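Bumping with the actual sequence this time:
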Amino acid sequence: MEEVNQSVVSEFVILGLCHSWELQAFFLVIFSSLYLVTILGNIFTVLLIITDLHLHSPMYFLLANLSFIDICLSSVTTPKMITDFLKENKTISFGGCMCQVFFGHFFRGGEMVLLVSMAYDRYVAICKPLHYSSTMNRQMCIMLVMTSWVIGFVHSISQLAIIIKLPFCGPRELDSFFCDIPLVIKLACTDTYVLEMLINADSGILSTICFIQLLISYSCILFTVCLYSKDGASKALSTCTAHITVVVLFFGPCIFTSLWPLSITWVDKLLAVFYAVITPLLNPAIYTLRNKDIKNAIKRLQC
């Protein structure tokens, strides 16, 4: 009787960013434009690095992979959000929701590890320039990229395995524009306290390890350059400014979410928009505007 009376949720209702049709029309234009610029900007960065022989170096190989991940990351949730602005009833199937959960954590986890790889590349280039060619060879670059994909996959599949078999038999409204684990797990018809702790520990460990490795890399860069050069700190920061900016923008909201004790709906939605839409847009812009090699490559392309 218990199995007969228990209904299974086949789809979730997405409440979206707002309920006003005027605001939804405004957001439709804004986010469609941002998504188009994000895709074109990252595709342009990838093609520029592939076609320009002067950019065939480890740093730009990693940058091209970062742009590719940003294309994938922005495509996980943004197209669905844009099309939902045109709908009165916003829903997503259970399978579609699980796909958003899996690929969202897959690409975010991979990007974290890739940012660490880029920091390691800068560390070797600045602190051990004589060993750069032998250390950052083709095999090492491929291994670093493959490691980011593997770790992202393991992180994502571990998160998905925790929630995919949970019983969803009652509430089905998600007060967001996409499926995220903290919101989905609250709709389960069971006590999820232990599972929430496991999920937070999984994400927290990966984020913390990556952030600590980034801090160690840049600390070593500054210490080493200051030791041998009077103007070392400013030069090192000038070289790594673009990368440091991307790291701060990526990990800043993550740290804020972990330290902020309260869950405020509009703050959570703002951070979600920042991760899904703004960060993939800023990465190519930052590297393009602050990188002399990219600027020179663009000039050569124009000529």
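The tokens above came from a reply further down the thread. Strands lie at 11-14, 91-93, 173-174.
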